[in-house]
Design brief:
By secondary structure, this protein is α/β, with parallel strands linked by helices. Helices cover 34% and strands 15% of the residues. The chain has helices spanning 26-30, 43-57, 71-83, 108-114, 116-123, 138-155, 167-178, and strands spanning 15-21, 64-67, 90-91, 160-165, 191-197, 201-209. A 6-stranded mixed sheet has the order 3-2-4-1-5-6. Helix 6 (138-155) crosses helix 7 (167-178). 48% of the residues are buried. Mean pLDDT is 91; it is low at 222-228.
């Protein structure tokens, strides 16, 4: 999948932001819910990050690299930096995954039994539903994630930057750009290209692009996080 229906043209100067999901973790591979839990990449994830970095090193120059401060995103970002000019990665906690409260650390298949109230909140379609145990609502995630990307877009107008983040954040950004919710899978190490112009004009130019992984055995790995766990 490379170009969603919400893609549109813009006549004024824009920032191109390459938003990527981190590489795979052991918890992605086993279906364990991550949220704010600080899980590092596994070996597959490191190979995915290396393939992603190689792709970006052969594309037009980037001006900066931003990342969630969680290990799985930060290691992915540092791998990209090493191939693309050795930028200092700018850590932004607002790019973290959604806090998933009491379901964090549980496997999907056990969460409904172990934490039924939290699981119901986690599964709710209500965007204002918070999750017991300090978890965020989808609206809270949306506001912090879109505010972060908007700040980056304003700071780097006319430039090309990389942002490394998580599946739930990417869903929030899609909601801003397309005025709808994306219900498919957001794969590990996928490339998603946003153009930001002005204060509220967003366009998606590529979505869940894993063409750089097709030459490896890991193209379709990391399906954990098909909701907001990654």
């Amino acid at each position: 999948m490379s170009e969603p229906s919400c893609s549109c043209s813009m006549d004024q100067p824009f920032t191109e932001i390459i938003v990527v999901r981190h590489g795979e973790t052991a918890w992605n591979a086993t279906g364990r819910i991550q949220g704010h839990m600080d899980v590092e990449l596994n070996e597959v994830g490191r190979q995915q990050a290396a393939s992603l970095a190689d792709r970006l090193s052969r594309e037009p120059e980037i001006s900066a690299i931003y990342s969630s401060d969680l290990k799985r995103a930060l290691e992915t970002a540092e791998t990209i930096s090493a191939s693309c000019g050795k930028f200092e990665v700018i850590k932004d906690p607002d790019l973290r995954e959604r806090h998933l409260g009491d379901v964090q650390g549980l496997k999907f298949r056990e969460a409904a039994r172990v934490r039924p109230e939290a699981y119901r909140a986690f599964s709710s379609r209500r965007t204002d539903q918070v999750i017991p145990g300090g978890g965020e609502s989808l609206d809270q995630l949306y506001h912090r994630a879109t505010s972060s990307l908007q700040r980056i877009g304003q700071k780097h107008r006319g430039e090309r930057v990389v942002v490394v983040t998580h599946g739930g954040v990417l869903r929030a950004l899609y909601r801003q750009a397309c005025s709808s919710r994306f219900r498919g899978s957001i794969l590990n190490a996928s490339v998603n290209i946003f153009h930001l112009s002005g204060t509220d004009v967003w366009s998606i130019k590529a979505w869940v692009d894993i063409s750089h992984l097709h030459q490896t055995e890991h193209a379709m790995s990391g399906l954990g996080g098909t909701k907001t766990s990654g």
